[in-house]
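note to self: dont lose this again. the chain is below, predicted strucutre after it. 236 aa total, dont forget to put it in the shared folder this time
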Amino acid sequence: MSFWQLPGWLVGLVACMVGMVVLATGWLASASQGTQAGTADGRWWWATVLGVPLLSVLLYARLGHPVAANPVLSMADNAAETMVDKLATRLKSSPGDQSAWLMLARSYRVLGKLEEADQTYRHAQVLGALPIDELTDWIQVRMDLASGSFDEQTRLLLAEAVRLMPDHDSVLLFQGLLAIDQGNYLQATQHLQVLLSHYEAGSADHEALTQVLALLKAGKDPRRKPQGSAADTPGR
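---
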């Protein structure tokens, strides 16, 4: 049985336990500098945002009914919520701790509380420039909230990320997506071609991105599912 054939409640339990590990690690490190987000996230951001069959990464988006049906999962979820609440309470007495604000933002993101994560990243930014991985995490949160679109603030955050590290995996991805939004498939191809060079030939990421580039070359928006024989017509 593959991972994707596991019962939904078990997938949910694993997700919650991973979240608890992330939170616990953050608690231990909160007195020091904010931790860097895992580099593995960058490899998958482009896949989750594009969201077409050839890029689907099988997100388990809803865990509502398994929580109600499984006491163990409910307990894990409640424990994670409690840890986050304690961190939020602590910040009321030490609002100048940027590393703690960033840990709280990451915690909200793990729990799927994207609006809270967005607001918390705002607080952290007021205290100083954000590291590149935190900045790209925030961009991803805002795009998730906006169903993959870029508003003015998200574009400003991306411009800052480009200034910090133009060859960062997620920065290249977001630049490619923005170019697609603007109808500039040539520019999107250029950004994603650089991103392709970051992946080993034959890897799942390399193969998926190669197919995305093929769709762009054919003048098709890779975020859209094919609709019969109808083809997408890009703006130029």
